[in-house]
Amino acid sequence: MGPKNLESGMTNSEATKDVLTPEQEAQADYWMAQIEKEMASAAEKSPEQIEKEKVRTELKEIFAVWLVPEKLEPLHALTTQAEALADPLRKEAKLALGEMLKRIHALGDPVDLMEQYKILSRAVGMINSGLVDHTR
């Protein structure tokens, strides 16, 4: 025999047999259904969460396109203001950076995406005194 239930004095196997009245069983079924509904709704994502995941995925895809040696190396090679202003790749990257930053801010500035943003931003560089500064 198993351990006894202290309140009823019955063993656990006896306590599980026909202990609940039909009313209690109906009430137990009701509350189990309520718990299952709550758990299901908690598992569902809000529209805001779904949108944030979509934006995050899009940003990762955009970074995957930009953070490749074929694009970063030519950007880092720009040294003068004239080169930088004439370079179509830099113009495109600079426009992309603006859009990326808006989306990153909308996500709450996640660290991983900001790090990728900084890599591309440094490759684009800032023009300072006629030279391109790739350190900021």
Describe the structure.
- The structure is a single chain.
- The chain has a two-stranded antiparallel ribbon.
- It is mainly alpha-helical.
- The mean pLDDT is 87.
- 69% of the residues lie in helices and 4% in strands.
- Helix 3 runs parallel beside helix 7 (111-124) and helix 6 runs antiparallel to helix 7.
- A hairpin with a 2-residue loop joins strand 1 (126-128) and strand 2 (131-133).
- It has 2 domains: 12-43; 47-133.
Question: Outline of this structure?
Answer:
With 136 residues, this protein is mainly alpha-helical. 69% of the residues lie in helices and 4% in strands. Helix 3 (47-66) runs parallel beside helix 7.
End-to-end Cα distance, whole Å, is: 75 Å
Give helix and strand order, one letter per element, not per position: HHHHHHHEE
Total strands? 2
Please give the radius of gyration in angstroms: 30 Å
Q: What does the average pLDDT come to?
A: 87
What proportion of the residues is helical, as a percent range? 55-70%
Query: Helix- and strand-based class?
Result: mainly alpha
| Uncertain stretches of 5 or more adjacent residues | none
Strand content: under 5%
| Strand line-up of the largest beta sheet | 1-2
Summarize the biggest pleated sheet.
2 strands, antiparallel
